[in-house]
């Protein structure tokens, strides 16, 4: 039955193909496209029954209209976030959208901890010095130990709590802020007001969802001014949450001692591309962040790039397709009403 269902999956790396093949228990007929979905390669999906995308694919009204014209009625993302999907356009065109509600929370949590600890222990500065044949042990490499420090987790969901437990395992005192903390969060960490968390934390790690038009530039001058002087900031959530000029200024004044980020604004212009020089990077904010190394550590949105997380994303995506082509819907569908004019 399902072998007649054709799925085009965009943004599938060569390393990921064996996982897609192994986890394809329903024997869907899958076509893998290396590149992220753009206006230029949308035609690769022609003749398919469904499309699978990932973060930073362009799933706007133009591409959705093309899918609808070709009879595609299911466009699913293998990510938790869905800011790249035009929900209203999909509803207007009768296309069902669905997502992966969660994957291994340890994946992003481990990277966030790694970035935080690298800055807390001045690892990036030390590595930068030795790369320049400088083996002096300077005062700016002197560090506290994490078991004497306080870590603040902004966003006490599954990922935030996973990182909290990692830090607790190292002996750190962990605080968390969440506007609607779960019972699990309250049982796991000390939940405090945001102002208290910022004032007391030696490392602040951000794990909040991005809501366009609501929390853009959440990490701004006012936010940074409330932080403990010399603290470390980590953002593995969304680039749109960060006011980069404000962060760079805080690094310059010493209000921040280090910043680690796995996310950028306008990532689609960067990810999956190799540039000859830093000057050729089209994203000005990304250039500024990378130029601030070693005070800034930048990774190319690899927080979820682990085997357990990948398996979860693929397995749940296939389950979403199974449900859709069996019942016409899926429990992980993203709901929005069609426009009244349509």
Automatic annotation (TrEMBL):
<comment type="similarity">
    <text>Belongs to the D-isomer specific 2-hydroxyacid dehydrogenase family.</text>
</comment>
<feature type="domain" description="D-isomer specific 2-hydroxyacid dehydrogenase NAD-binding">
    <location>
        <begin position="115"/>
        <end position="303"/>
    </location>
</feature>
<keyword id="KW-0520">NAD</keyword>
<feature type="domain" description="D-isomer specific 2-hydroxyacid dehydrogenase catalytic">
    <location>
        <begin position="21"/>
        <end position="334"/>
    </location>
</feature>
<dbReference type="Pfam" id="PF02826">
    <property type="entry name" value="2-Hacid_dh_C"/>
</dbReference>
<dbReference type="GO" id="GO:0051287">
    <property type="term" value="F:NAD binding"/>
</dbReference>
<protein>
    <submittedName>
        <fullName>Lactate dehydrogenase</fullName>
    </submittedName>
</protein>
<dbReference type="InterPro" id="IPR029752">
    <property type="entry name" value="D-isomer_DH_CS1"/>
</dbReference>
<dbReference type="InterPro" id="IPR058205">
    <property type="entry name" value="D-LDH-like"/>
</dbReference>
<dbReference type="GO" id="GO:0008720">
    <property type="term" value="F:D-lactate dehydrogenase (NAD+) activity"/>
</dbReference>
<dbReference type="InterPro" id="IPR006140">
    <property type="entry name" value="D-isomer_DH_NAD-bd"/>
</dbReference>
<keyword id="KW-0560">Oxidoreductase</keyword>
<dbReference type="Pfam" id="PF00389">
    <property type="entry name" value="2-Hacid_dh"/>
</dbReference>
<dbReference type="InterPro" id="IPR006139">
    <property type="entry name" value="D-isomer_2_OHA_DH_cat_dom"/>
</dbReference>
<dbReference type="InterPro" id="IPR036291">
    <property type="entry name" value="NAD(P)-bd_dom_sf"/>
</dbReference>
């Amino acid at each position: 039955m399902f072998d007649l269902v054709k799925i085009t999956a965009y943004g599938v790396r060569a390393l990921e193909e064996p996982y897609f093949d192994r986890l394809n228990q329903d024997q869907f007929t899958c076509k893998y496209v290396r590149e992220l979905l753009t206006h230029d390669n949308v035609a690769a999906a022609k003749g398919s029954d469904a499309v699978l995308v990932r973060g930073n694919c362009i799933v706007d009204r133009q591409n959705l209209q093309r899918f609808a014209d070709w009879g595609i009625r299911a466009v699913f993302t293998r990510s938790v976030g869905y800011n790249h999907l035009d929900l209203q356009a999909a509803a207007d065109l009768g296309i069902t959208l669905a997502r992966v509600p969660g994957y291994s929370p340890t994946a992003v949590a481990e990277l966030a901890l790694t970035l935080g600890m690298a800055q807390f222990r001045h690892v990036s500065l030390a590595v930068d010095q030795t790369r320049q044949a400088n083996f002096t042990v300077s005062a700016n490499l002197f560090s506290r130990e994490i078991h004497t420090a306080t870590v603040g987790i902004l966003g006490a969901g599954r990922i935030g709590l996973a990182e909290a437990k990692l830090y607790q395992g190292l002996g750190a005192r962990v605080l968390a802020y969440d506007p609607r903390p779960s019972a699990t969060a309250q049982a796991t960490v000390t939940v405090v007001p945001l102002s208290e968390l910022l004032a007391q934390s030696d490392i602040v790690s951000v794990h909040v969802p991005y809501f366009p038009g609501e929390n853009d530039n959440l990490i701004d001058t006012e936010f940074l001014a409330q932080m403990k002087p010399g603290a470390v900031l980590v953002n593995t959530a969304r680039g749109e949450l960060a006011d980069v000029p404000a962060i760079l200024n805080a690094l310059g004044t010493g209000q921040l001692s280090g910043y680690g980020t796995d996310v950028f604004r306008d990532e689609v212009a960067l990810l999956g591309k190799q540039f000859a020089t830093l000057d050729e990077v089209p994203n000005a904010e990304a250039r500024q962040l990378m130029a601030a190394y070693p005070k800034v550590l930048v990774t190319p949105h690899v927080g979820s790039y682990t085997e357990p997380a990948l398996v979860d994303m693929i397995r749940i995506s296939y389950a979403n397709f199974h449900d859709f082509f069996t019942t016409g819907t899926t429990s992980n569908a993203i709901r929005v009403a069609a426009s009244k004019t349509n």
